[in-house]
Design goal:
By secondary structure, the chain is mainly α. The protein is built from six helices and no strands. It has a domain of 35 residues.
Length: 93
């Protein structure tokens, strides 16, 4: 059978390499790969810096929330509909 011939050829080849199978071979690293360093662009550095600064800020301005809450309680909250609609049109088109 041809399958046995292939298998016997593979087994013969594997038998010659049995003595090397248990030994760990050191990985050869070229000087170019060993000396390679990561280069980070200025844009990436700027984004990372901005991200860290944003993470330090609170999600909600609690002072502003307290101010609006107090103005609602004492009735001094001024809702200018014209100004609000102008801002919405400017923001959303």
């Amino acid at each position: 059978m041809e399958i046995n011939k292939i298998n016997s050829a593979i087994n013969t080849e594997m038998g010659t390499n049995k003595s090397n199978r248990g030994a760990v071979q050191p990985l050869k690293v070229s000087a170019e790969v060993a000396a390679a360093t990561a280069v980070v662009s200025d844009d990436c550095k700027l984004i990372a810096h901005g991200k860290s600064r944003l993470e330090q800020l609170p999600d909600v301005d609690m002072a502003k929330v307290a101010e609006v809450r107090q103005s609602l309680i004492d009735g001094s909250f001024d809702l200018n509909i014209d100004k609000l609609t102008d801002a919405m049109v400017l923001q959303h088109g």
